[in-house]
Amino acid sequence: MAPISLSEHLAAQRARGPHTPGVATIVGRLGRVAAVIAKELAHAALRDRLGYIGGVNVTGDEVKKLDIWGHEVVEAALRATGACAAFVSEEAKEPIEMTTEGGNPLVVCCDPVDGSSNLDVNGSVGTIFSLRPSRGQVPAGPAALGPGTDQVAAGYMMYGPATTMVYTAGQGTHGFTLDPETGEFFLTHPDITIKRRGKTYGVNEGNLHTWHPGQRAYVEYLRTPDRASGRPYSLRYSGAMVADVHRTLLDGGIFMYPADFTDPAKPKPKLRLLYEVAPMAMLVEQAGGRASTGMERVLDVRATEYHQRAAILIGSLDDVAQAEDFYRRPA
Ligand code: FDP
């Protein structure tokens, strides 16, 4: 059977049921951008494109040359679709408003190059995106604010040994692999279903002393041997959220970036809600998994700021439910 291309899959999904206009156009275009980003990453060291530009972005991260370049190519691609009314980017303080060609345009939230600390060591990085309806709002940027349940599509690209794209438009989660010769993505992982329980956990354990007591107790539990419940779990952590969530989707288990609870009155999460946490939550829920902040379902968290941060515990249903249970126990 001939392999199914991303554009064919998007058209088939559109024909299957109610759909939001513009989703296929934007997701298809982001697929083409991913092929360009993958090529640039492969040549970055040869073209002096690695390293920092000197400066920090709106959320205080040091900015790399490829962060800015990635932002610019995504912005140009979205502008060309005529279906994007506003672009919320990790690299821009305010949403970038765009001219559209009428008819229910969308707001796109995106981290063009996620996990950029991996860039200089040739580790995997990714692109994460989320689409929300603009509801005809002008300016459209504020339509990005609200709960994650507003998302109509979400996805990521992972630039590793192969370039992978995983997306959902609310009808399951599907994975594609880039054919570098043709620049086209083909369906390699249809209807991804995450295992109910896994055997691995991913978390930056260097931060252990800053965690909520429930988080500490849960990780201690995962490390404690018990043959009957499959413990200890194996630790896997790449330092790029896309790669860690991708492994969790395919193999099961749990990936966590908990908040810094040093001051329990002011917990400090790291990852950004609109273009990291919420899209991953939609993808994993569509694959039958679960995503929580430890206290509540991620998709119910209302964004009130574009660069708002949120904690995330994401992956297999039973693993995440158990982690939440540890958060509820008295310290
Ligand atoms: P990075 O800072 O390298 O861009 O987006 C934030 C992120 O990467 C995630 O991709 C990753 O999971 C996390 O931060 C890694 O943070 P630590 O270095 O604190 O573990």
Shape: globular
**Assembly state (oligomeric):** single chain
Number of strands: 17
Give every kind of bound small molecule, once each.
Answer: 2,6-di-O-phosphono-beta-D-fructofuranose
Fraction of residues in H or I helices: 25-40%
Please give the largest β-sheet. 8 strands, mixed
Order of helices and strands: HHEEHEEEEEEEEEEHEHEHEEEH
Strand content: 15-25%
Give me the side-by-side strand order of the main sheet.
4-3-5-6-8-9-10-11
Radius of gyration: 19 Å
Mean pLDDT: 94
Q: Report the uncertain regions.
A: none
Structural class estimated from helices and strands: alpha+beta
Distance between the termini: 56 Å
Number of helices: 7
What are its keywords?
17 strands; alpha+beta; five-stranded mixed beta sheet; 7 helices; 331 residues; binds 2,6-di-O-phosphono-beta-D-fructofuranose; 29% helix
Provide structural commentary:
The structure is a single chain. With 331 residues, the chain is of the alpha+beta class. It is 29% helix and 24% strand. It contains 7 helices and 17 strands. It has helices at 6-16, 23-43, 65-81, 213-223, 241-251, 273-286, 317-328, and strands at 52-56, 62-64, 84-89, 96-97, 106-114, 125-133, 146-147, 153-159, 163-168, 173-179, 184-189, 200-202, 234-235, 254-257, 290-292, 302-303, 312-315. The strands form 4 sheets. The chain has an 8-stranded mixed beta sheet, sandwiched between helices. The chain has a 5-stranded mixed beta sheet with strand order 13-12-14-17-15, with helices on both faces. A two-stranded antiparallel ribbon has the order 1-2. The longest helix is centred in the N-terminal third of the chain and has 21 residues, at 23-43. The model has no long low-confidence stretch (mean pLDDT 94). The protein binds 2,6-di-O-phosphono-beta-D-fructofuranose (FDP). 2,6-di-O-phosphono-beta-D-fructofuranose (FDP) binds next to loops.
